[in-house]
Amino acid sequence: MKDAPRKAGSVWIVALAVLLAGLEPARSQDENVVTIATAGHGGVYLPAGSAICQFVNAERERHHIRCLARASAGSVENIEALRRGARAYAIVQSDMQDAALRGSRQFEKAGPLPELRAMFSLHAEPFTVVVRADSPIRSFADVTGRRINLGVEGSGMRATTEDVLAAFGFGDPDAAHAADLPPGDEIQALCDGQIEVATFVVGHPSGYVQDAMRACAGRLVPVEGPAVQRLLADAPYYAPATIQSELYSGQAQDVPTLDVRATVVTLASRREEEVYELVKAVFSNFELFRRLHPALADLDRVEMVGFGNTAPLHAGAERYFREAGLLR
Questions:
Q1: Containing domain of residue 67, as a range?
Q2: C-alpha to C-alpha distance for 47 and 50, rounded to whole angstroms
Q3: Tens digits of per-residue pLDDT, 175-191?
Q4: For residues 325 and 26, what is the distance between their CA atoms, to the nearest angstrom?
Q5: Distances (CA, A) of 41 to 73, 86, 295
Q6: 146 and 242 assigned to the same domain
Q7: Which is more confidently placed, 294 or 68?
C-alpha cells in the first residue's frame, strides 16, 4: 500500500455535522421532538439533515418542534425505521423511495409502503466507480469476476450497485468476489488490494472519492453502454450523469454514469403543520443551505418539488409549496 487514506477531504463535513448537532438546544417540556435518519459520516446526508434541524430549532419557541439528525447505514435502514415508527423523517435515494412505495427490490419481503410521502428532493448522487490507477478495468463491463465492494446491508449504495450489476447481466457476486464494507473501510481495502472495485453513490465532490484518488492513486471508471441505456429507460428514478474531471486531481476526462437523487421523505401520518414547518425551514434558508456543501450548490427550488419524487407529496409540503408559488 502507498499511503493510508487521508481523511482531509471529508473531515470538514464531519466537523460541520458535529457543530450543527452541538447547536441543538436543550429540550423544553412542551416541545415535540422529531428525528431525521441520514447516513454515515463522510457523505452529504448527515450535514444536510443536521442543517435542516438547525433551521427548525432556530424557530422552536414559535412552533415547539425540536429536530435531531441521526446517523444510519443509509436508505434501506432509513425506510424501515420510518415503517416501524423509530424515525419521523428520512433522507433516502430516489430509487429506494420508489422501491419502498411499491414494495419491490429490497422491500419485497416487507411489502409496499403506500403511506410513504415525499417532502422535497436534494442533490444528484452519481453512481461512482473507483479503481486503482494500475487496474486493467477501463469500463464497468470489465468488473465481472473482479472483487467489488457492494456496500453495507441497509444502504442505498448497495441497492444501486446490485441494480447496475444486474443490468450488466453479472448476477449476484459470490463471497469471493464481493465485499460489504462501509465507504471509509473500502478506501483502505482498495489501497491494500483487498478489493479491486470501490463503489459510491454520492454527491460530488465527495470526500470519500477524494480520499480514494489521493491515497490509492485512484481512477474513475465510466458506467455506460446499452445496459445503462436500458436501465435508464426502465427506471424513471435514474438519470444520465457526468462526473466532471476538474472535481478530482489526476482525473483527465469527464466520466459518464447514471445518478439518483437524494430525497427527504416521511409518512402520511405526520401532522401537516409539523411537515409544513420543516419544509419552510429549509426553503426560508435556501441560500445558506446551498452553501453547506458543493453538492448542494446547484439545488433549484422548482426541481426540488418534484424531481426524483415517486411518492405523493405530503399535505404539509404541498401546502408550503403552493403558498410559495412553487406548485400550482
A1: 8-123+262-323
A2: 5
A3: 678 999 988 899 999 99
A4: 35
A5: 10, 20, 15
A6: yes
A7: 68
